[in-house]
């Protein structure tokens, strides 16, 4: 007669293996330390960026994409913050916490996949617009309009929301009995759809390609073309034009995104999108690659502030922050010259200011 417990599988506890400690350390560092810090800073930064980019002085096609990007990044960071909350609940081991976590996971999994896909293709949209502006400047005014940017952003959101719907249906919460521990608990398991390999395997490859692999290839190609075009246009001894300075800032955003998403793309090629149903070793690596995606979602506001003078100026204008005295004195001098004193000089300076403003509107800053 055999003992049923000898062949029973542990369900309500963690079955130890050689990589369990690695996974627990990775989860602790990313989920309980990195995520709350990055998410709080990123949500505040993206909210401020949305306020500034929505200002009437910042109405350009590029800013439409950057505003949509701030929305998708904020959605992802809010979802990531809930992951931190789930880990805190899990560590308390209170009755009902496991049920909440298990029921929440399928929705969190969907939001994560959707927001990363949206962010990837909005970043590609920014790169395409910069490519047109730099390599085909005569067509830029016709092709890179605010209306078209809004349409593209909306299409990206809607298409990625629909594409990732199976992710919401891949897992489900199941109440199971653990014979070894003689208790019942909720677990996260693949749903009927998730167990359908005939659908999930090709779908996973398609989603993997659209989430990271194809955007990565497109961004590397476009960035190389844009950088090469800028080098050819650069005249020695002359400062970069306003348009090219903005292009450099957007290149920095794209490069940072490429660096952060590349580990995820590599993982997607070899391991698919699994997390709950993967080994502790794979889950530990996933914790690290997913934290890089969270850092990417929180980083753009820092780039705007450090590389964009017009973004800083508009930020100061909205939040009533006083500009440095030298800049203020220059502004006052220009305004006074426009109305009094030498009329020719005042008109020339006013005209120069208008020209700068027009250039700024065309090039995001």
Automatic annotation (TrEMBL):
<feature type="transmembrane region" description="Helical">
    <location>
        <begin position="209"/>
        <end position="227"/>
    </location>
</feature>
<dbReference type="InterPro" id="IPR017452">
    <property type="entry name" value="GPCR_Rhodpsn_7TM"/>
</dbReference>
<feature type="transmembrane region" description="Helical">
    <location>
        <begin position="32"/>
        <end position="53"/>
    </location>
</feature>
<dbReference type="Pfam" id="PF00001">
    <property type="entry name" value="7tm_1"/>
</dbReference>
<feature type="transmembrane region" description="Helical">
    <location>
        <begin position="149"/>
        <end position="169"/>
    </location>
</feature>
<feature type="transmembrane region" description="Helical">
    <location>
        <begin position="107"/>
        <end position="128"/>
    </location>
</feature>
<keyword id="KW-1133">Transmembrane helix</keyword>
<keyword id="KW-0812">Transmembrane</keyword>
<feature type="transmembrane region" description="Helical">
    <location>
        <begin position="291"/>
        <end position="311"/>
    </location>
</feature>
<keyword id="KW-0472">Membrane</keyword>
<dbReference type="InterPro" id="IPR000276">
    <property type="entry name" value="GPCR_Rhodpsn"/>
</dbReference>
<feature type="domain" description="G-protein coupled receptors family 1 profile">
    <location>
        <begin position="45"/>
        <end position="304"/>
    </location>
</feature>
<feature type="transmembrane region" description="Helical">
    <location>
        <begin position="65"/>
        <end position="87"/>
    </location>
</feature>
<protein>
    <recommendedName>
        <fullName>G-protein coupled receptors family 1 profile domain-containing protein</fullName>
    </recommendedName>
</protein>
<feature type="transmembrane region" description="Helical">
    <location>
        <begin position="248"/>
        <end position="271"/>
    </location>
</feature>
<dbReference type="InterPro" id="IPR052954">
    <property type="entry name" value="GPCR-Ligand_Int"/>
</dbReference>
